[in-house]
Amino acid sequence: MNAITQIAEDTISVVAVRIARLLRPNQPQTVMEMTR
């Protein structure tokens, strides 16, 4: 179950980073915070 949760969190993180890059391409700090 922990593995599934981890995969879900990783997927959400990747999507969040992609959205952040699309919305704020000039603010890499936001992307860095998302990946944490």
SSE blueprint and pairings:
Layout: H1 2-23, H2 28-35
Helix pairs in contact: 1-2
Give a description of the structure.
The protein has 36 residues and is mostly helical. It has one domain. Helices cover 83% and strands 0% of the residues. The protein contains two helices and no strands. The chain has helices at residues 2-23, 28-35. The chain is elongated and about 35 Å long.
Residue runs with pLDDT of under 50 for 5 or more positions: none
Work out the number of β strands.
0
Number of helices: 2
Tertiary shape: elongated
Order of helices and strands: HH
Mean of residue pLDDT values: 79
| Biggest sheet descriptor | none
Proportion of residues in extended strands: under 5%
Name the structural class. Answer: mainly alpha
- Our count of domains comes out at 1
Radius of gyration over all CA atoms, rounded: 11 Å
Helix fraction by DSSP (H/I, runs of at least 4): over 70%
How far the N terminus sits from the C terminus, by CA atoms, comes to 22 Å
List keywords for this structure.
83% helix, 36 residues, mainly alpha, 2 helices
Quick take:
The chain has 36 residues and is mainly alpha-helical.
